Amino acid sequence: MLLIIITTIIALLVIYFYKNVYSFPPGPFPLPLIGNLYSIDIKKLHIWVKEQKEKYGSVFTIHIPIPFVVLGDVDAIKEAYIDNGDNFLGRETRQIFEKFFNIKENTGVVLSEGDWWKNQRRLSLTILHNFGMGRSIIEERIKMSIDDLFEHLDSLKDKEHIDLSKSLHLTVGNVINGILYGFIYKHDNAEKFYEFTSLFEQMIKGTRTWKMRIAILFPDINKIPILNKFISKPLMEIQRKIFEIHHTNIEKCKKTYNPNNEPPNFVHAVLKELESNESKYSNLENDHLEGMVRDFYTAGMETITVTLKFFFLYLLNDINLQEKLRSEIYDVVGKDNEIHLSHRNELIHVESFIYESQRKSSILGFPLIRKCTKDTYIKNNLIKKGSLILPYDYIANHDEKYFKDPYVFKADRFINEDGETLNKNLIDKFVPFGAGKRICAGKSLAEAELFLILTHLLQRYRFIPNGPIDMEIQFGNLLTPKPYTCKIEKIL
């Protein structure tokens, strides 16, 4: 009798499971409990997801093991996030990230939603705009960081085995550090900065392990002490240290805060706003300040640094391309003249190279999850309220429909046949910073840093590979190149 009851319960659960499966857009066949995990190479998840797109179209469902609706081309992404943007502003945070990282609900810009998200994003963008994001002020901040990089590279005795990643990391980090905290690190005294980046690199490596995947996909596993200690606790300890560094920097920043002075950094500006009797953001607290700082620090440093590492990987792999871009800089700007953001429209081969590098690398290995807040049809597929959404930029940016030979790096891909103008129609099919109301808040800062750091380095130095270039990508929440070194020759 007991066996019959157990069998009946299992059968009913299986029936319920598949009834739920068929309420989503079609996709690869899932099994109860494990979904599609039986058929996935977790180290090449982005490749596997693209293969499913070829089978099921631009809107499909994968179970890993939680069901996710994938938006697999730029048209589906824009139909959802621009044409129906208000229906896709939700974030699924409590189930996955908050439980794993112990993040307080609705703190920061990335994982919050509703009015909490609107208020924190609006306040952040207002402050960043006041600090010059998108204007000449931010250009000067970036150039100051580049000048420090020049001084550091020129001072190196060994120019034969240079790890560009460390220098680029600090250069980018100092820009966001100056904006958020009001201080920067010198290249010869940056131990604390590299302690932080080391922790973050450990986190990225952790996302490549099966333990991390289990912890994120099954967040309730943290409630089981033995499994928590084995699977989640080591990574949570790394994350705790990262949070503590931010907390310490914010507390130091608070000690120099004077409400009577014009705020010199993001932290002071938020504090002044929160203290104002006329503030629109009186519901925000210190936890929200720390969340905003963490989000902008991570987004403003790691993604830009990884993208720059791909830039120089491609340039080391093709010396002729490197010389071509350098020649364009010399022809348009000159060898000794200063490069400005205003030169972007004239340096079309440099711009096309930047677009193609971002397209080819598409560094988000696992996109930021959104949540559908209202039943919506996308590409004639019903996406039900509450569905979790993966806008897979990697797939969209490797779509054969718009990008011929998508896995081949073509530096001039985004240039028209006339050889003199950029192909704006193709650029419109390219998704480097997301789309819609949740588009990357630091887009203009990222574009400025990528352009200025790349062009200034090419104008001043020649980069030479140390042997064969390994183009293999390492999978994680961020797709990264393998570590490499190079030689540099000063030109100017």
TrEMBL record:
CDD domains (alphabetical): CYP1_2-like
PROSITE patterns recorded: CYTOCHROME_P450 (PS00086)
Record-listed heme binding positions: C440
Keyword annotations from UniProtKB, A to Z: Heme, Iron, Metal-binding, Monooxygenase, Oxidoreductase
Keyword Ribosomal protein recorded: no
GO molecular function, one term: oxidoreductase activity, acting on paired donors, with incorporation or reduction of molecular oxygen
Listed cofactors: heme
Family label: Belongs to the cytochrome P450 family.
UniProt-recorded name of the protein: Cytochrome P450
Organism: Parastrongyloides trichosuri (Possum-specific nematode worm)
Lineage: Eukaryota, Metazoa, Ecdysozoa, Nematoda, Chromadorea
